[in-house]
UniProtKB/TrEMBL annotation:
<protein>
    <submittedName>
        <fullName>Biliverdin reductase A</fullName>
    </submittedName>
</protein>
<feature type="domain" description="Gfo/Idh/MocA-like oxidoreductase N-terminal">
    <location>
        <begin position="10"/>
        <end position="126"/>
    </location>
</feature>
<dbReference type="InterPro" id="IPR036291">
    <property type="entry name" value="NAD(P)-bd_dom_sf"/>
</dbReference>
<dbReference type="GO" id="GO:0042167">
    <property type="term" value="P:heme catabolic process"/>
</dbReference>
<feature type="domain" description="Biliverdin reductase catalytic">
    <location>
        <begin position="134"/>
        <end position="244"/>
    </location>
</feature>
<dbReference type="Pfam" id="PF01408">
    <property type="entry name" value="GFO_IDH_MocA"/>
</dbReference>
<dbReference type="InterPro" id="IPR051450">
    <property type="entry name" value="Gfo/Idh/MocA_Oxidoreductases"/>
</dbReference>
<dbReference type="GO" id="GO:0004074">
    <property type="term" value="F:biliverdin reductase [NAD(P)H] activity"/>
</dbReference>
<dbReference type="InterPro" id="IPR015249">
    <property type="entry name" value="Biliverdin_Rdtase_cat"/>
</dbReference>
<dbReference type="Pfam" id="PF09166">
    <property type="entry name" value="Biliv-reduc_cat"/>
</dbReference>
<dbReference type="GO" id="GO:0008270">
    <property type="term" value="F:zinc ion binding"/>
</dbReference>
<dbReference type="GO" id="GO:0000166">
    <property type="term" value="F:nucleotide binding"/>
</dbReference>
<dbReference type="InterPro" id="IPR000683">
    <property type="entry name" value="Gfo/Idh/MocA-like_OxRdtase_N"/>
</dbReference>
Amino acid sequence: GNSEKDMFGSVVVGIGTAGFVRVRDMLAPLPSSAAEKLSVKGFISRRILEEQQGVKQITVEDALSRDDIKVAFVCTENAAHEENIRMFLEAGKHVCVEYPMAMTHKTAVELWDLAQEKGVVLHEEHIELLTADFKQLKKDVAGKRLEEGFLHFTGGPLKPGFGFPAFSGIARLTWLVDLFGELSVTAASMEEDQQNKYMKMTAQLITKEQKPLTWIEEWAPGLSRAKDINFRFDSCTITQLPPATREPVGIFMQDLVLFSQKLLGQVPRDQLHAERRRVLHCLELADRIQQLSLQGSAQDT
Ligand code: NAD
C-alpha cells in the first residue's frame, strides 16, 4: 500500500470545471498508476464553499505552510495563474497548471527558471494532445508533406479572465506545433465587437519549410464549440478529424498520470526538455500574434 510519507499531498486552487475534475481524479486515481501517489488534502477558492466531493476548503496560508502538502493544482481562470504558480513555487511546492501557464512568454520563462531553482516540477496540462482523435490525426499526418493548412476554432463567448485568444486558444496552437514542428508568425489580426461579445483572431503562420498555416479563433455567444480543419499534403487532403474510439482512460486522468510520473522522476530528461521547449515556443508565438493583432487594430482607429 501507499504509506503516508511517500505520498504527494495536494491542494486544488480554483473550483471550476477543471478544478472539479482534478479533485474527482485524485479521489479515484487510475489503479496501479503513478497517480495513486497523489492525495488531495484540500481546495482553495476565493469563494467560501462547502465541502467539494468530501474535500474541505483550506486557506492559502495553510496550504503554503503545511509540510504534508507538496503539490498545487492551479485551475483558476488564466489571469490568476501567474500569481498562484509563483506563490507555490516560492514555497517549494510542485505545480501542475491548466494551460496556458502564463499570459506572456517572458513570465513563463521566469516561472520555469523559478521551478528549476527550487528543484520542483512545473507541469502545464495539455489534454488536447491526449484525445484519441488527436493521437490518430498525428499518426495520419506522420510522413506526409504539408503544402498548406487551416484550423478554425469556434466557441464561446470567451470568459472574462481568460485573456487574449492566442493564449486562451493555446491548445489549437499546440496542435499545430505538435503536428508540423516549430512555426513563425507572418501576420495576425483581430476583429472585435465588445457589445456583442464577438471576437475573431486570424493568425498567419509558416512552417520551417515555408508552408503557410492559417489559424482562426472565433468566439461569440451561441457559437458551438467546434474545430474545422483542412490540411493539404503532397499526397492527400485531411478535412476532418479521423474517427477514433474513445480511450478507457480519460484525458485529464492521462495528464494526472504524466504529472505524477514527473513527480516520481520517471519521465526522461529529453522528454521534459522537449515539453518545456514546446510550451515556451507556443507562448512565444502567442505573444507575437497578440503584438501583431494589437498593432493592426491600433492602425485601424
Ligand atoms: P471555470 O470558469 O469553470 O473556472 C475558472 C475559475 O473560475 C475557477 O477558479 C473557479 O473557482 C472560478 N469560478 C467558476 N465558477 C465560479 C462562480 N460561479 N463564481 C465564482 N468563481 C467561479 O474554468 P475552467 O474550464 O475550469 O478553466 C480553468 C483553467 O483550466 C483555465 O486555465 C483553462 O484554460 C484550463 N483548462 C480547462 C479545460 C476544461 O476542459 N474546462 C481544459 C483545459 C484547460
